[in-house]
Amino acid sequence: MNYTFFDFLQLIGALGIFIYGMKIFSDGLQKVAGSKLRAILKGMTTTRFRGIITGFATTTITQSSSTTTVMVVSFVNAGLITFVESTGVIMGANIGTTVTAWMVSIFGFKMQITPIAIMLIGIFFPFMFFGKEKLQNLAEAMIGFGILFIGLEFIKNGVPNISENPEMFAFLDQFTDFGFLSILLFVVAGTLLTLLTQSSSAASAITLVMLFQGWIDFPIAAAMVLGENIGTTVTANIAAIVGNVYAKRAARFHFVFNVFGVVWMLLLMQPFLVGIDMTMTYFSPEAGSVFDAVDEVGRANATLALSLFHTTFNVINVLLLFAFVPKIVSFVEKVQTESKTSDDKFRLQFISSGMMSSPEMSIEQARKEIELFAKLLEKMHFSFQGLFFKKQKKHEKFLKKIKKREEITDNIELEIAEYLTKISSYNLSDSATRKIRAMHSIINDMERVGDIYFQMSKTFEDMEKEGIELPKGAVEEIGEMLNVLHNAIKHVRRNLDKQNGDFDLNRAIDIEKEINIMRDQLMDKHYQRLEKKEYSNKAGFIYLDYLNRMEKIGDHLFNVSEALAGRKVKKAYSNVMDDR
């Protein structure tokens, strides 16, 4: 045997190049897709059939079923889609993941793709530094495509030659003589291979190379593919560990669905493989049977047969189990029960499942989390308003809610900031960098809004303890100011919901002007009341404190609108107000 440890390290390096190329290719495709990918994902909330199409399309774009299923887990965790609605997407992802195997089989074994891959890198590499952002993203995808197949060529060359290393083949061959037990053994091997590489695409590529080089025969390769179908579910299950019960159910469904598919396929394995062989022999009679592939043409044909097996199995599995989805859902719900003491509503929802597969998708998740942040601020607003305009027996409840929510806003700001910092470590486009900087500014201002509501609630609590009451007119004026602030919050929420960048900054300017003018008018009334001795100096100071703090909330909300619009108009606006 002349296969050394150095040769083994070269094989590991080749695998690393392949996986790295797949990642660059996937990231580039997702950047090119951009908002179109998000539009595709919206299709998840309709029928189960559309969910299958969505899962297939998304996996084809991302080049990773794990990416799609992790996204699904995240969306279920956030309540964006239901557990039942997610099942179609998961089934579609299983079919979509077979596209990579076809790509590797056709370009990697039937064609001499390496010279073309190198040529593609040479053509597109200059566009990484010049040209528009979309062209840079396309260049990134094409360079990733090239690196992927260069890595595949290295893997093919790095796998030990059978004729030169018969001992290694003999070691592997001794596990293939146990009949059905051997099939089960290599199903487990396929599962472990996917767990080790954390990529079903990489595991499929390794299996295809082993088949092409003659290390394993066609039935054993098919068994490994079945194992890889189970192994690919692990990533989503890991992501669901920190998710809510519905996210866990979505991940468990993926596992159960794939295991059911592997079980029925194992029972029909032999006739199914014979059918695949007959199909391949019909279209490529010169290549011979895939069971007896000995020359390079026959082994290349066997890799295509394995891809056909992978696709056919997943398509039939979806068709076969489609009608039984409600039964599987019911089973998963019984296994993954809902905890009565769950505190899911107090956790982050969109980013609790970890990073998405690309910065673009991760930024989108952070944006959705910020939307929920704004919704929480609106709830704090209502609770503070309730202190003045609801019965006194409810005041304690409102004070507790504001305190609890203020603590949550602190945690939200910290966790979103850490998430954005992680995204920043990636190779970002200019627009993505601007978005992240704007988001950092937004969450800082929103956290300050939460702080101010809490501070005002503490002032109200102290006022009640000391028996200080504001005149009816002063309370009504606070109510008017709160109504304008609510308009500002609603406007921020509407702007946060917009994904196309068409932010209405003019309306934000109008609301900011209204808040400032109202603050000035109410201060005049405050001084008039002091002069007429309608309330004490202490009550007057409390009233004035409310006004100033509410005006400060308006400032922070306006800062949020500025960050969303990517424009700084506050200074110019302040100069205009000073001139008046």
Task: Give a structural overview.
By secondary structure, the chain is mostly helical. It has two domains: 5-335, no CATH class; 358-579, Methane Monooxygenase Hydroxylase, Chain G, domain 1 (Up-down Bundle), CATH 1.20.58. The chain is built from 24 helices and no strands. It has helices at residues 5-33, 35-42, 48-62, 65-78, 83-96, 98-110, 114-124, 133-158, 166-173, 180-197, 200-212, 218-231, 234-239, 245-267, 269-283, 296-321, 325-335, 359-389, 395-424, 430-465, 472-497, 505-532, 537-565, 570-579. The longest helix has 36 residues, at 430-465. The protein is elongated, with a radius of gyration of 31 Å. Mean pLDDT is 82; it is low at 340-346 and 575-580.
What is the gist of this entry?
This protein has 580 residues and is mainly α. It is built from 24 helices and no strands. It is elongated.
Layout: helices, strands, pairs:
Blueprint: H1 5-33, H2 35-42, H3 48-62, H4 65-78, H5 83-96, H6 98-110, H7 114-124, H8 133-158, H9 166-173, H10 180-197, H11 200-212, H12 218-231, H13 234-239, H14 245-267, H15 269-283, H16 296-321, H17 325-335, H18 359-389, H19 395-424, H20 430-465, H21 472-497, H22 505-532, H23 537-565, H24 570-579
Question: What is the H/E order?
Answer: HHHHHHHHHHHHHHHHHHHHHHHH
Question: What is the gyration radius calculated from CA atoms?
Answer: 31 Å
State which percent range the strand residues make up.
under 5%
Question: Please, what is the average pLDDT?
Answer: 82
Separate helix tally: 24
Helix content: over 70%
CA-based shape: elongated
Q: How many strands, what sense, and barrel or not for the largest sheet?
A: none
Helix/strand-derived class?
A: mainly alpha
pLDDT below 50 for ≥5 consecutive residues: which ranges? 340-346, 575-580
Give the strand tally: 0
The structural domain count equals: 2
Cα separation of the termini: 90 Å
